[in-house]
Amino acid sequence: MTSLIIILVSAIAITTLIGLNAWLGGWIPSRIESLQAAAERIRQDYPGFNSGDGILANDGRAALLEDQGRDRIGMVLTQGDIFVSRIVRPDNINRIDSVDGKLDIHFHDFTLPRAVIDLADIAVADHWKRRLTGDINA
Predict the structure, then answer these.
(1) What is the pLDDT of residue 1?
(2) Domain residue spans of the chain
(3) Which residues of the chain have pLDDT under 50?
């Protein structure tokens, strides 16, 4: 009987913590508000990054920015309530697919193995795919 009471109290406590987390907004993902905010994040994490042309994902969860004069792209992603930024060169990418306006990028990086970026437009996604893979005709 004691074991049953311990299990019941534990279940109630866990449910209460989950409810408190939801009530405090613990499951509201971060959003990138603008390309300027993404550019500022990249410059903060990678001094010397000179942002140029860029695009904000349809859902506000990712941004891609070119580094003017260099063959690399700055990428800012949201993961939960934090922002992750990376400098991406063509040799960092294992595979990239463009399907229905989404970029599905697989990296040679175990800390960020994959990113899916919803650009909502097939032509735009194909354009950024070419830029990320180093196609100079992008």
Answers:
(1) 84
(2) 1-28, 35-132
(3) none
Long-range Cβ contact pairs of 95-103 (< 8 A, separation 24 or more)? 96/129, 96/132, 96/133, 97/129, 98/122, 98/125, 98/126, 98/129, 101/58, 101/125, 103/128, 103/129, 103/132
82-88 vs 93-99, strand pairing mode: unpaired
Give residue for tokens 């209460």: 16
Nearest alpha-carbon partner for 65 in 95, 91, 34? 34
Which fold, 35-132?
Answer: PH-domain like (2.30.29)
- Residue 7's pLDDT is 92
pLDDT digits (tens, 9 = 90+) for 44-56: 999 999 999 999 9
Beta bridge partners of 66: 73
